[in-house]
Amino acid sequence: MLGPAVDEKMLKASMNLFFMPWAMWWDKYQKLERYYQILSSLKNPQNEWCTPNNIIYEHQTLRLRHFPNPEETTARRPILILPPQAGHSSHLADYSPAQSLVRVFHRYGYDVYVTEWLSATPEYKDLGIADYIRLTDEAVEEIRRRTDIYKIHIIGQCQGGWQAAIYTSLYQEKIATLVISASPIDVKAAPAEIIEYAQLPLEFFEYLVARGNGLMDGRYILMGFKSLQADEHYVRKYKRLWDMIEKGDEDGIKRFIRFENWYEYTQFLPGKFYLDAIRNIFKDNNLTKPGVWKLDGRAIDLGNITCPVIIMAGKKDHITPPPQAFALRKYVSTPEENIIEILTEGGHIGTLMGTESLREDWTRVAEVMKLVI
To answer: Which pTM value belongs to this model?
Structure first.
C-alpha cells in the first residue's frame, strides 16, 4: 500500500522513464530541452522587417519607411499602409517573406510606404488622435513631395483602418482609394467581447494609463486580447509547439517562433491617444455621428469621403465582426458602384496577413486599385 503522499500514476511514469531504453530517454530529454529553450528565447521577443526599405522621414512617434519596388514600378499611384497601433509593432505589414502585404503590392507594380509607429516615450504621452492624424498627413505630404503625385492610395489595417477613414474624411483631396481591413467603424453594428470590455467605467482605463505615468503599456492591451481566447493563448499553443517538436515539424516550429516574436512584443501608446480611442470609438461610437467628434476644431464626417472604397472583413473575426467594418459603406458618399466588400475566410489576424488572405483577397484589392484613375 502506498503512502498518501505518493501518487501511483506518477510513480508508474517514473518507473517507465527509469526503464526506458537509453536512446529513447535521451531523445525525450533533447526534445524537452529544446521546448524550454524555445520558450525561454521568446521571453524577449524581437521583430524585424523582411523586405529591404529605407527610413525617409521621422517625427515624434512616426517613422516613415519606403519599400522600393525591386521590379519596375508600373502602378500609377503609390500606396501608404497604416498598420494598427494596438500595443504591437508595425511589422505586421511585412510579417515574413511569405506573408508580406508589402510584397503583394510589389508584385502588382506598386511603390509602397509604411508608417512605423514607434513605442511612445514619456515626452509623447500627451499625443492624441489629432496628433496621429497630423503625423499621418506629414507622411502623406512626404510621399507626395518625393513622387510628385497629388493623390495616393491609403490602406488601414485594424485600428489603422479607422485612422485611415478619419484621415480621408479630412483630406479627401489627397486620397485616390481608401482601403480598410478588419477595422471597427460602427461598433454597435455587431456584438463583440472587446466592445463589452470597453463599457467598463472610463476611470478603469484612466487608471491603466496612470500606472504607466501617462503611457498605456501594450502588455495590458495584449492581456485583454488573450483573455478573449484564453484556452488558445494559455494552453493550446503550448501543446501545438510540443507536438511539432515531437513530429520534427521544423517549418511549423519556425512559424510558431516568428508569430510569438511578433505577437508577444509590446510597446507603449501615448495615454491620450489610447483614451481618445476608448471614448470616441469604443464607448461613444462617434465615427457614426457626423460632426460630433472634432479634431483641432475640424469635425469628422465620413460623408466627406467620395473616393473608391474597399472594405475587408474576416468571417471568423472575433475582434471586429464583419458588420462593424462593412458599416462604412452607409456613412461615405462614395457611389455604390465604387464600394467593394470582401469577406475573407479568416479571423482577425488572418485577414490582415494570413497566407490565404494575402494570396486571394489582397491580390484582388491590388487588382481593383490599379483600375482607379
So the answer is: 0.91
